Amino acid sequence: MSIVNKAKQAYKKLFPAPILKDFPAENLPWIDKKNPDVDGFVKQFPKAAQLPYDLAEKLRFWNQNGYVILEQIISDELIDAYLADVQELIEKHKEYDINIRIDRPEYRKHPVMKIRDVPREIIEGQYIKIMEFHNASVAGKKLMLHKAIVSFLEAIFNQKVVAMQSLTFLYGSQQETHQDFPYVVPQVPSHLAAAWIALEDVKPGSGELHYYVGSHKVKKFDWGNGIFFNGESTKNPTDFGKYLSAECERMGLERRTLLIKKGDVLIWHAALAHGGEPILDPELTRKSYVCHYSSELGYYRHRHDLVNEPVRHSMNGADVFADPTLTSYENSFKRGEKVN
């Protein structure tokens, strides 16, 4: 039995999961509760005056719409350092155990593979996600734990932020409409958010991200065994996507596509309905970096070892855990040490 499966079994014994129909009210983030006192919160939030955006305005927008866009907060130098790391990984892929996910028909039985075992032409093609490269890349950690992102997340959770995972895309995902929380489940399910970092300008026809404004308030989908997708679910992701699209249209929610610039960041709620448009021009890349976050209450153990205290890397008041299954690669791509 793998270390991952052993850890999952140990965690289930310690914390058996209830069948939930919604996020538990007792640990819902303050901003998601009825009539949150935004002005009162901002007055007592120590970082508010230091931010390059109006925190009160962003929090009200988040509460109403389920996302915010932070414009031009990441330097080209840091993004370019990360892209150089990604390119080095691709060129030397046979040397690394780092995982990638391949959502192509011929890989349906084994969608997650070690990058060393995948041909380069597949790695550089569509339907690919490079998984958890932040563990190896210093620049990836700096992007993930950028102070402007961390500060906003710290405000919505009102707790220390812990980064959970990352995905790197060269092309648009072309995913069905979905919400993140049924698939990415921290120890407190409502303590989840994501950041979509544009590594280049997004062009029309590149398989843009789409999202439904205000869809974080849609009634949770029942997979047949609660709100999370797992081995006991009787519904599938296609059922999920159809439900979300139908509910968003029934509620009259606006469907937008994301056309942002290199250095811009979209941060979205765990329950925002979103997906990837079809790629209309196969010559267009859509390089992006997606990170998921929780709080110190919501994610206090690495999912690959749910028993032992994690090794923490801290930056801007937030943590990301070292991957206990890939310790030899931690921070092995060092060019990000020279940039901010």
UniProtKB/TrEMBL annotation:
Its cofactor is Fe(2+). This is Phytanoyl-CoA dioxygenase family protein. The lineage of its organism: Bacteria, Pseudomonadati, Bacteroidota, Cytophagia, Cytophagales. Keywords: Dioxygenase, Oxidoreductase. It comes from the Bacteria. GO terms for molecular function: dioxygenase activity. Gene3D superfamilies: q2cbj1_9rhob like domain. It comes from Larkinella bovis.
